[in-house]
């Protein structure tokens, strides 16, 4: 752990790191995606759903006007849901590029990568921050799945009755299945990134898996130390920085747990899970409930026999 403390002051500069020439190409690719992330979160936060219209249509099945109203309310919402889903695919591609850069054999070890590619490390952190924020908002919005399943039911009824559905070309059956599966997950964006990281590792068999897991565990340690050390914590200019660090810490733990053969909770894990959970528990409960849930429900190895009992009880 000593090595991290030495580099932490440099990591504080990560928040305004500018890309070097070597990083520029990947940085530009990812930047385009991150520029759209804020708008996606705003749209998701404003997503109200068509619950009212759907209820009335279902309660009065013979009232054509109400059926049309519900359909008219749902179609644009499905357009949004499709857009969020498509964004998850772009985000996964961006993550792929970043992992490629941050785990390449250019430098001897992870610490060097993260020191010399701070701008990319920051983008990686921003992707995780977006991902956990997206999933927090999605978890608290049951309308999303209701709207989508109403849309699918209505659409298949229209097909049976040969009613031309306008905008039907927007979501064909295969895409609808994929979108459905995406939103069925408690934390869909994290699932996308976890799958993407797993895929990255399996596609790069020649790359030592440690290159990826060390990158993740180093970021987890950095966030934890920054959060638990008053001297660093006091330098955080805003609560936003705190929540940024918390989300990134949880995000890298989950990815590590997916990619590492024995996961984040095992004795041999390079992540101090007790320390990380302790940091989470020290925050105001309402601000971290979503993150604790992500650790409870999105990790792969928490319920393994080998997981330390203390860790399990800390997450009860």
Fill in the keyword field for this structure:
316 residues; mainly alpha; disordered N terminus; CYRIA/CYRIB_Rac1-bd; globular; Family with sequence similarity 49 member Bb; small GTPase binding; CYRI; 73% helix; lipoprotein; 15 helices
Parts with pLDDT < 50 across at least 5 consecutive residues: 1-7
Q: What Rg is obtained from the alpha carbons, in whole angstroms?
A: 22 Å
Which range best describes the helical content: under 10%, 10-25%, 25-40%, 40-55%, 55-70% or over 70%?
Answer: over 70%
Strand content: under 5%
Number-wise, the strands total 0
N- to C-terminal distance: 28 Å
Number of domains: 1
The rough form would be described as: globular
Q: What about the largest sheet?
A: none
Decide which structural class fits the backbone. Answer: mainly alpha
Average pLDDT across residues? 87
Count the helices. How many? Answer: 15
H/E order of the elements? HHHHHHHHHHHHHHH
Domain CYRIA/CYRIB Rac1 binding: 12-312
Family: Belongs to the CYRI family.
GO molecular function: small GTPase binding
Organism: Myripristis murdjan (pinecone soldierfish)
Gist of the model:
The chain has helices at 2-12, 24-45, 51-59, 64-102, 110-116, 118-139, 143-160, 173-184, 188-203, 209-228, 230-233, 239-259, 273-281, 285-298, 309-314. By secondary structure, the protein is an all-alpha fold. The relative contact order is 0.11.
